[in-house]
């Protein structure tokens, strides 16, 4: 435990020293050509990203949430395999809560694009 704390301190001090010493020792030669934004070495094609529809974000966040939760189903099934009916009941409660969240999102109209 002490080694971990010491290594965090040493590397934290080293990182802070690098950040603080860089403006003092590094060359600073401003150039208008260097200050312009670029995309893969060429001038940008547009000013910025336009507005994105809010339901896209909701569906993306729900996908991430349900995807991560569903990923836990297999390890939970393996962990509860030897527990018999109580393990099956625990997985059933987990699936019920997951289904209730999905039904709530469906009822709120998150999956409608219009």
Task: Using brief descriptors, characterize the structure shown.
114 residues; mainly alpha; flat
Q: How would you portray this structure in words?
A:
With 114 residues, the chain is mainly α. It has a domain of 54 residues. The protein is built from 5 helices and no strands. The model has no long low-confidence stretch (mean pLDDT 82).
Q: Could you give a short description of this structure?
A:
The protein is an all-alpha fold and 114 residues long. It has a domain at 54-107. The protein contains five helices and no strands.
Task: Break the fold down into its secondary structure elements and pairings.
Layout: H1 2-25, H2 32-35, H3 54-71, H4 73-79, H5 85-107
């Amino acid at each position: 435990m002490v080694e971990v704390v010491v290594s965090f301190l040493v590397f934290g001090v080293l990182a802070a020293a690098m950040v603080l010493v860089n403006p003092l020792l590094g060359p600073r030669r401003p150039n208008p050509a260097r200050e312009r934004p670029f995309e893969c070495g060429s001038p940008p094609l547009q000013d910025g990203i336009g507005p994105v529809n809010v339901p896209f974000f909701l569906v993306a966040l729900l996908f991430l949430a349900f995807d991560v939760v569903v990923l836990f189903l297999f390890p939970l099934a393996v962990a509860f395999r030897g527990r018999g009916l109580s393990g099956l009941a625990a997985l059933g409660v987990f699936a019920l809560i997951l289904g209730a969240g999905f039904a709530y999102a469906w009822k709120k109209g998150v999956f409608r694009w219009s």
